[in-house]
């Protein structure tokens, strides 16, 4: 008799039952983890000490700072680098003859799902918002890496599951973060979390991100730097960045995350009678960035494109972001373009 003959195999029925019990146990553990309470304020502090450290500012400006928010600039680091809110507020106030408060809620990296998380917090908390200006660039296939930590459970689990390369990773993070955030809540000071609003911390986050600053992890963002004019710029067609397999699919599948969350933003804005516009700041030498379907955006709101900035290297700190010279030139143009949009938004709000 060989060693193989001595091996005892589990009967098929018993193996299936064991597998079933393991699967049931995994479901029950996941369900129990999902029942653990989480604090929204702790959730929006998860970016502390990272490049997303201004997530706390978004939450605190929305929930604790009672000054008006009339116009919210929301998007990627291109929005963060572009919107001089003090100048925009002053210029719009002067043009319209009454105070207009503008905030810059831009945060690094692309991903329309994180912008939805910001919009959801904002519009469900602040009835004073009249206009949201979103970043626009070439359509994105990306889920923002911070979304799985900052978004709500419903927003993460309700994302498109197909054509979304990050869906499984994001979904698996939900029960994990319930446990992690619950543990953090048991000893918040050990995790450097604020249990209540701290004006001293908040005041350090209210700086203008179009000026030079350091991120939460100490990286210097030098807005005074000027790009080397020899650096290559120019647009990247979507076909060069979209997975080859997706190029055969309709645009709703090709850009599933982008379109799903933009539609959610547009629907919530309509419900709250808030106007949507887009700001597409060009990259260096990239005035003609490609849209596969510009009509998708213009159906939601006007698209503002300061293409006149693109060919002057002095406007840029790097290929993708304006520097202080560029934002100084952008602000008067943007005030002129936004003034009639704000007026119309006030009339319909």
The count of DSSP E runs of length 2 or more, i.e. the number of strands, is: 9
Q: In which order are the strands of the major sheet placed? A: 2-1-3-6-7
DSSP strand content? 5-15%
> What is the overall number of helices?
15
Radius of gyration: 23 Å
Secondary structure category = alpha/beta
C-alpha end-to-end distance: 85 Å
How do you describe this structure in short?
Helices cover 45% and strands 9% of the residues. It has 349 residues and is of the alpha/beta class.
Task: Describe the structure in your own words.
There is one protein chain. With 349 residues, the protein is an alpha/beta fold. The chain has one domain (51-143, 197-348): 3-Layer(aba) Sandwich (Rossmann fold). The chain is 45% helix and 9% strand. The strands form three sheets. The chain has a five-stranded parallel sheet with strand order 2-1-3-6-7, sandwiched between helices. Strands 4-5 form a two-stranded antiparallel ribbon. Helix 7 runs parallel beside helix 13. The model has no long low-confidence stretch (mean pLDDT 88).
SSE diagram, text form:
Elements: H1 3-6, H2 12-35, H3 40-43, H4 55-63, E1 71-75, H5 77-82, H6 85-96, E2 102-106, H7 112-123, E3 131-135, H8 147-150, H9 153-157, H10 167-186, H11 199-205, E4 213-214, E5 220-221, H12 251-254, H13 256-272, E6 275-279, H14 294-298, E7 303-304, E8 316-318, E9 321-322, H15 324-348
Parallel strand pairs: 1-2, 1-3, 3-6, 6-7
Antiparallel strand pairs: 4-5, 8-9
Helix pairs in contact: 2-10, 6-15, 7-13
């Amino acid at each position: 008799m060989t060693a193989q003959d001595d091996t005892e195999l589990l009967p098929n029925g018993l193996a299936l039952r064991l597998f079933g019990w393991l699967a049931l146990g995994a479901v029950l553990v996941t369900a129990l983890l999902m029942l653990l309470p989480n604090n929204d304020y702790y959730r929006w502090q998860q970016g502390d000490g990272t490049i997303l450290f201004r997530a706390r500012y978004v939450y605190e400006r929305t929930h604790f700072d009672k000054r008006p928010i009339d116009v919210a600039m929301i998007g990627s680091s291109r929005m963060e680098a572009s919107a001089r809110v003090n100048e925009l507020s002053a210029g719009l106030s002067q043009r319209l003859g009454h105070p207009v408060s503008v905030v810059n809620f831009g945060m690094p990296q692309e991903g329309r799902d994180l912008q939805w998380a910001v919009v959801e917090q904002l519009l469900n908390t602040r009835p004073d918002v009249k206009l949201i200006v979103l970043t626009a660039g070439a359509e994105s296939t990306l889920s923002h890496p911070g979304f799985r930590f900052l978004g709500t459970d419903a927003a993460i689990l309700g994302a498109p599951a197909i054509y979304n390369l990050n869906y499984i990773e994001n979904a698996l993070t939900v029960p994990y973060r319930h446990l992690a955030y619950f543990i953090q809540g048991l000893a918040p000071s050990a995790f450097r979390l604020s249990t209540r609003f701290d004006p001293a911390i908040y005041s350090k986050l209210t700086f203008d991100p179009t000026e030079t600053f350091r991120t939460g992890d100490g990286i210097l963002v030098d807005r005074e730097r000027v790009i080397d004019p020899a650096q290559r710029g120019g647009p990247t067609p979507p076909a060069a960045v979209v997975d080859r397999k997706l190029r055969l699919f309709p645009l709703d599948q090709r850009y599933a995350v982008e379109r799903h969350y933009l539609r959610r933003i547009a629907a919530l804005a309509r419900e709250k009678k808030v106007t949507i516009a887009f700001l597409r700041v060009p990259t260096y030498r990239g005035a003609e960035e490609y849209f596969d379907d510009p009509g998708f955006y213009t159906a939601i709101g006007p698209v503002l494109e300061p293409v006149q900035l693109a060919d002057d290297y002095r406007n840029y700190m790097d290929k993708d972001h304006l520097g202080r010279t560029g934002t100084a030139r952008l602000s008067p143009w943007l005030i002129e373009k936004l003034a009639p949009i704000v007026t119309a938004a006030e009339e319909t709000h």
